[in-house]
Amino acid sequence: MNRKMTPMLESFVYHFGEMGSRWGFNRTVGQIYALLVLKEYPLCANEIAETLGISRGNVSMGLKELNSWQLVGTVHKPGDRKDYYHTKGSIWDMANKVFEERRKREIDPTMSLLRDSLMDSPGNKEEEYAQARIQEIHDLLENITKWTQSLQSLSPEQLNGLMKLGAGVSKVIDLKQKIGGKKAN
What we know:
Blueprint: H1 7-23, H2 27-38, E1 43-44, H3 45-52, H4 56-68, E2 72-76, E3 83-87, H5 91-119, H6 125-152, H7 156-184
Antiparallel strand pairs: 1-3, 2-3
Helix pairs in contact: 1-2, 2-4, 3-4, 5-6
């Protein structure tokens, strides 16, 4: 990488590239996005390529992918013909977009397969058992999907509050179980 980044920024950009490959886009796309997240101002494709030490063509393809995910926007500077790129929305918006895209690519096809499997009549005891397990998986994924969709409708402030509350709720549940267990003895 170019020396324009400090070791801390470079470390983050590299790591984000690795994480991006786990989120459904390639390492370079993750690095481009991380660089844009960390910059206060929009960058042109040449600046991105130079900073990351990658080809201009690779940057163009990465920006197209990020644009298809609706994670980047384009701005123009007066008197300059180049496009400058910036991240769209907040970090919460990014997390929602990544989750939504992963849901479309991973969970939706799985749910479709599970529904199709449940519509078939079992041919024997083994298939009956398998279908019961498939129903459990379907119900779990459906509940998780409904829950996450309801979370996505909350504001960042509400989500922060809910997450802080979450730790307290688990303590209350643990306490209730301990108290309930003692009364039963």
